[in-house]
Amino acid sequence: MNYTQLFKMLREAKGLTHDGLARLVGCHRNTVINVESGRPVKFRTIAELMEKIGYDADSPEMKSIALLWLESISGVNFTLDRSTAEARKKIAKFRATEKEAAQILADAVIGEHLSVDQIRALIFAAGHPEVIRIIEGIRDLMKVPSEIPDREDVPPMGSTEEESVDSTDATPAAETTTTSN
Predict the structure, then answer these.
(1) Alpha-carbon span 87 to 177, nearest angstrom
(2) In the predicted structure, residue 17 carries a pLDDT above the cut 70
(3) Are 54 and 62 in contact (CB under 8 A)?
(4) What is the pLDDT at residue 76?
(5) FRET label pair with 102: which of 8, 74, 122, 171, CA 20 to 30 Å apart?
(6) Reduced 3-state DSSP string for 16-52
């Protein structure tokens, strides 16, 4: 059984139609139809509908709907022992990678002798991607100075490149003549 079938069964067991449940929740009837037809919906929508039907968040029915919905969006059948074992392995691998990353970070903090304020700034930046982009931009700017041309190589503002070439350096273009036969 999938979550759409269970949802429909629970709705009908309470004697509610699509329209009746939609009026009760204050949503469009298509929302109820979308849940039962398997169209992508947020679980929050399903939970709100279930609560209005009369099933609270801790009810076995809500937990069953949640598990079946999660299975449908993840493609993992959590009721099979094999799937549960695979999921546990993936979680363990993620935790191992997470531990390794934490150790690398701890080593870097210790190696750089960071102050408490610097560590707090890193924590703040880690939670705000826009700050990280700004820091990366500044880091990139700090690499640029070697690529900035010397002042004398830069033409004055408002002049074209031809005007900035010294006349003594300019050599006349060779004239070519063609003869026609």
Answers:
(1) 82
(2) yes
(3) no
(4) 74
(5) 74
(6) CCHHHHHHHHCCCHHHHHHHHHCCCCCHHHHHHHHHH
Q: What is the pLDDT of residues 148-170, one digit of tens each?
A: 455 455 455 554 544 444 444 44
Q: Which pLDDT value is given to residue 109?
A: 80
Residue for token digits 């429909």? 8
% helix / strand / coil in the chain, to the nearest 5? 70, 0, 30
Radius of gyration, alpha carbons of the chain: 34
Closest CA to 28 of 54, 49, 56: 49
**Residue 178 corresponds to which tokens in the numbers above?**
């063609």
State the helix-helix crossing angle for 60-74 and 43-53, rounded to 10 degrees: 160
Q: Is 72 helix (H, G, I), strand (E, B) or coil?
A: helix
Sort residue 106 into left (φ over 0), alpha (ψ -120 to 50) or beta: alpha
Q: Going from the N-terminus, what domains does the chain have, and what CATH number goes with each?
A: 3-74 (1.10.260.40), 81-146 (no CATH)
Q: Per mean pLDDT, which of 49-63, 82-96, 104-118, 143-157 is the most reliable? A: 49-63
Query: Nearest CA to 73 among 33, 45, 38, 36?
Result: 38
Q: Is residue 96 exposed (0-12), middle (13-18) or buried (19+ Cβ within 10 Å)? A: exposed
